[in-house]
Write a structure and sequence with these properties.
The chain is an alpha/beta fold and 363 residues long. Helix content is 63%, strand content 15%. β1 and β2 form a beta hairpin.
């Protein structure tokens, strides 16, 4: 709820500031007949609309879980971002249609000292607003706020370019309005496409962030009795709702009670530190055959494509050795596994081998 309040408060500030800028810029753009300033005002209007959608999306995403949606509504924030990006894209395309003819048939502009001062003031305001919104967004992990803050920085740069064009028009009597309008339009279009791509990637599911992955594994491996943490998987049900699983390697002489206690300690620790719900799986470790593991690791170290082996275990009765292997996505996976299997078999022919193909989904 505290996160939700911060997003709403920050968005309201953005709405108020942008609406004030819209009023000033639109008035100036019409009075001095400047397409660039008018388009800049339209861009500020889309920023205000984006903030409104952010508020609505945040409110809906904050709904409590129910029978049909047991993981909550957190992913609605991503849909909000898609809507915002689409609005920005539409604004960019419309601006491009308006600006392109102005290159060949430029309008006569008549800037005043007051108009230039207001544009300069808008640049400063947008820089301050962008820094504030982006800072809050990064602090509370809000993709929408980070995007809004970055967009505000962009607006400041575009407004600065408008100011420069105005000065050039005054002193050199050269109209850059059409060209500047096209540039602004293309920047808006690119920003919207980047926003769409980032949001869609989050909805599809992307590789676990390496910094977060390291934090989780370090936290797990700090628990007594854990030899290593592997196979980390995270499912994102919104920026603040992550559920996942991890496998830990433990001694094979632990009792069911020991494993139960260890799993509870790990889950509680990770949730307390990172607010992530984690299910814990087990890999058994038998030190009696540690020498075979070391030989296997020496063999795999010859292959840069092999990123990791884990889950190594020797089943004495069945004369079976099993282990997981992670091979780089770009490598000839089957060839690498066959060569490794051939080499370890040559050293220990009395065993059968089960290689489980794992994937590089987290660092």
């Amino acid at each position: 709820m505290d996160r939700q309040r911060k997003i709403i408060k920050t968005s309201i500030i953005g709405i108020v500031v942008n609406l004030i800028l819209v009023a000033f810029k639109a008035t100036i753009g019409i009075l001095v007949n400047s397409i660039a300033i008018t388009l800049d005002a339209v861009n500020n209007l889309t920023d205000a609309l984006s903030s409104i959608i952010t508020i609505i999306g945040t409110k809906l995403a904050g709904k409590a879980p129910d029978k049909n949606h047991p993981y909550g509504y957190g992913r609605i924030e991503y849909f909000s971002s898609v809507i915002i990006a689409t609005i920005v894209l539409w604004a960019g395309i419309t601006a491009l249609q308006e600006s392109w003819p102005k290159i060949f048939n430029p309008d006569v502009t008549s800037y005043t000292t007051v108009s230039l001062i207001i544009i300069a003031f808008a640049v400063i305001v947008k820089f301050i607003l962008g820094r504030y919104v982006k800072g809050i967004g990064e602090k509370i992990n809000s993709q929408a706020l980070v995007a809004s803050g970055s967009d505000a920085f962009f607006d400041a740069i575009l407004s600065l370019s408008t100011l420069i064009a105005a000065i050039i028009s005054i002193f050199f009597h050269i109209s850059l309005e059409g060209i500047l309008g096209v540039i602004i339009s293309l920047v808006i279009i690119k920003a919207s496409i980047d926003m769409l791509k980032e949001t869609i990637d989050s909805m599809i599911g992307v590789r676990v962030d390496s910094e977060l992955s390291k934090k989780i594994k370090d936290s797990v491996e700090e628990v007594d009795g854990v030899w290593g943490a592997y196979d980390l998987i995270l499912h994102n049900y919104g920026p603040e709702n992550m559920i996942g699983s991890v496998h830990v390697e433990v001694d094979d002489d632990l009792t069911a009670e020991d494993i139960h206690t260890l799993s509870r300690v790990i889950s509680t620790k990770v949730y307390g530190e990172l607010s992530i719900i984690l299910t814990v799986g087990i890999y058994a470790r038998n030190d009696k055959y540690e020498y075979i593991r070391r030989d296997l690791e020496e063999i795999t170290s010859e292959y840069e494509e092999v990123l990791q082996i884990h889950g190594f275990y020797v089943y004495e009765t069945e004369k079976l050795i099993s282990f997981d292997i992670i091979v780089d996505f770009d490598a000839d996976r089957e060839k690498v596994k066959e060569e490794i299997l051939s080499k370890i078999k040559a050293q220990y022919p009395e065993f059968n081998y089960l290689i489980i193909d794992d994937y590089d989904i987290s660092d």
